[in-house]
Amino acid sequence: MDAAARAEEFRRRLDQAAEATEAALDSLLAPAPLADEITRPARLLEAMRYVSLGGGKRLRPFLVIESARLFGVEGASALRTACALEMIHCYSLAHDDLPAMDDDDLRRGRPTAHKAFDEATAILAGDGLLTYAFDVVADPATHPDASLRVSLVLALARAAGLGGMVGGQALDLAAETAATPLSQAETMQMQAMKTGALLRFAVDAGGILGGAAPAQKKALRRYGEALGAAFQIADDILDAEGDTAALGKRAGKDAERGKATLVSLLGLDAARTRCDQLVNEATTALAELGLGDATEILAEAARFVAARRN
Amino acid sequence: MDAAARAEEFRRRLDQAAEATEAALDSLLAPAPLADEITRPARLLEAMRYVSLGGGKRLRPFLVIESARLFGVEGASALRTACALEMIHCYSLAHDDLPAMDDDDLRRGRPTAHKAFDEATAILAGDGLLTYAFDVVADPATHPDASLRVSLVLALARAAGLGGMVGGQALDLAAETAATPLSQAETMQMQAMKTGALLRFAVDAGGILGGAAPAQKKALRRYGEALGAAFQIADDILDAEGDTAALGKRAGKDAERGKATLVSLLGLDAARTRCDQLVNEATTALAELGLGDATEILAEAARFVAARRN
Fold first, then answer.
1. pTM, 2 dp
2. A245 Cα to chain B: minimum distance (Å)
3. Which of A17, A107, B14, B264 has fewest C-beta within 10 Å?
């Protein structure tokens, strides 16, 4: 495949994953109660749907689905894991947007959850999505093998928790009010936790679902880490250069807050160079999987992440 | 055992469970990073410790530990499950106390988390504890059997989620601004979700850990439901009668907000009678377990819950 065909195939698969994720989330968050539930409160459910449906590139679900596909795993196992991960990503956006955190009114071109509903509902919708993610992964419908499901739960909890996403958000908030900005190493660590951990989990999940060999799991991990770092630098570049309309969220926030990013630390050109290096690291890791052309779609994902305009 | 000896033995075991839980939570929330974590941000960890350490009767951990003990399960399996449940209980208090929710300044006689820290940190500490609870349960240190661990994860997620605790809190908040107060049936359902679901899980967890027979699991469930309902009525009675100093949190909140409780719906005397009935239901369910005197401590727990003064 030439570059254009590869890019087109990537877009097709990304759209496909987004559609499948949207439909599966819609079904998981349907008003009908589950067997073990007493009821699903209507307004809370509506807010959970608002937060998780109808938006986003669904990059994390795509990564789960495509990394699982590398090992021949398709269908409900990958899709339900993808949905659980997306629920956690979406809950984190709803909480990060709260007045007490980033205080944002706009997300994906729509009012944020606390604007569309109210603060209490936005907090509870986030709590509900976070909790439901573990319900979905632990459910036998995700995979017949209980030990595999519990491995996913553990990996997801670690990626999302105090040593991962939540911890990264705490470090990011602390940096805003700190006397000195974060160093480059601290910024990279904060970003590896805040954004990187969930992206890394997406790829790890494929390896867990597919029963990848230990060496393959290591290579997947390296791919996930490089992809996550590239994603974050691209995000910083977008925030520095982007306009609010294209982003669907407010641009220029980082500079406004005097926040250290790799762009502010290295400058735009060096940040772009670093991003390219990370794409190379990502594709090199994929080559080590020993799965040949099957990894092309994930290599394209790394290039896409680094070059994206929104 | 006579009534006084039973009550004394119950207090001893409750204190013992509280001490063990405190020590285990302290260790789980130690600053030293776990193997898979990049780091544990100091201020976030401090807030998670503030929210979960140094307070509370630890009734839920006690119920996990004692219901597991019925089936010969002791040690780390029960204690780690107890800690996970307590983390979820404590996170829910921190989020419920937020200005956007119940807006409370006092909890267990101390400033609430958003007062002691700040709102963003209180939200993140709650998110962190909720996430960590699933990490703790899913970890092989909790039990060697992965299918048992994943059963615990699933039961915990359902008890804590939109069909359980989070859903109940959403219904409770909605009722405050609704045109008409909740009916008795609606109030009971809201309470069964908001407070009952976690108490029920505590007892269910003992059955899961102990490999209880299906009929025993059903009897445990009936015990847990009756105990949970008795707990909530006792809570409503305390709020109606209690004083802030003894409660360690503000009393009289329900009436102030015109909130429907079983006390406001039935009156104090009928609420007390209903509470006594529930204690009977709880002890009858225990008798059906076919475990003889071993259940006396849980029967005493039901009596304690109904008669407690704080």
1. 0.95
2. 28
3. B264
